[in-house]
Amino acid sequence: MNTVPIALITGANRGIGLETARQLGRQGMHVFLGSRDLARGRAAAEKLQASGMAVEAVELDVTRSSTIRAAADLIGGRFGRLDVLVNNAAVALDDKTKKPSQQSLDTWRAVFAVNFFGLVEVTQVFMPWLHKSQAGRIVNLASGLASITLHADPKDGLPKTMAVYSVSKTAVTAWTVQLAAELKDTPIKVNACDPGWVKTDLGGPEAPTTVEDGAKTSVRLATLDANGPSGGFFKNNQTVPW
Ligand SMILES: NC(=O)c1ccc[n+]([C@@H]2O[C@H](COP(=O)([O-])OP(=O)(O)OC[C@H]3O[C@@H](n4cnc5c(N)ncnc54)[C@H](OP(=O)(O)O)[C@@H]3O)[C@@H](O)[C@H]2O)c1
Questions:
Q1: Contact 9, 19 (CB under 8 A)
Q2: Which residue, of 7, 43, 200, 227, has the greatest Cβ tally within 10 A?
């Protein structure tokens, strides 16, 4: 059997996803770099291939079922399993000039389509291949903004200008707990990740964390050994409050 771990990262043509692909590729994994635009994915993958990594682009738009199924057929057909799934793709579309109650339903639907329903569908479609792995790992990218505890603390001061994004990420952490319970008697571990506030297109130029450090929690959760946690929410080695 081919023992090189097989990984898939969604939304990996830029930002934290691309850096996660780089760090997992550097560890010797065979990485599928998911991108909703295959040309952008290939351009990103080529840079990693040039450093000798086994990274290849695969078209995957988390809102388009046909691309999710095609990616699963491609990876499952070739390798017979998936060892690591990093659900990284996301959008932040809140209108920051508006209050939470004023965000349009179109915005709620568009954000949940990617950040939550897309993540759930990718997981469902790849689940049979994750069950074929001897040590499946699922990493769900949440955010510190997912924390209800921190949002509800009047002293914490988490911004309320991204209510739609924040609630979509809370759904991701809640789903992570449900899935971990389902998988508790299997080798598969699933955890939610807060990468920190990271300098990317989404995080913006003011963010204090480099993309290299921002990818570290995803990489840690993707490479947990058999004694590692499941059903948790982590930033670096710390637990994030729900
Ligand atoms: N940056 C931060 O400070 C921060 C903080 C907390 C959590 N996070 C989370 O970390 C993850 C990565 O964020 P980032 O900062 O790297 O964001 P980013 O630079 O904006 O990259 C987002 C990625 O998601 C992809 N994407 C968007 N919609 C998609 C779809 N429908 N199907 C497939 N891919 C799609 C984008 O593809 P295109 O290039 O085609 O648009 C891009 O590759 C996200 O889950 C984010 O919520 C980030």
A1: no
A2: 7
Distance CA 191, CA 137 (A): 8
How much distance in Å is there from the Cα of 200 to the middle of ligand 1? 9
The verdict on pTM exceeding 0.90 is yes
**10 Cβ below 6 A of ligand 1:** yes
Between helices 119-130 and 163-182, what is the axis angle to 10°? 20
Q: What is the DSSP string of 110-132?
A: HHHIIIIIIHHHHHHHHHHHHTT
Asked whether 112 lines ligand 1 (CB < 6 A), one says no
Q: Cα–chain-centroid distance for residue 220? A: 13
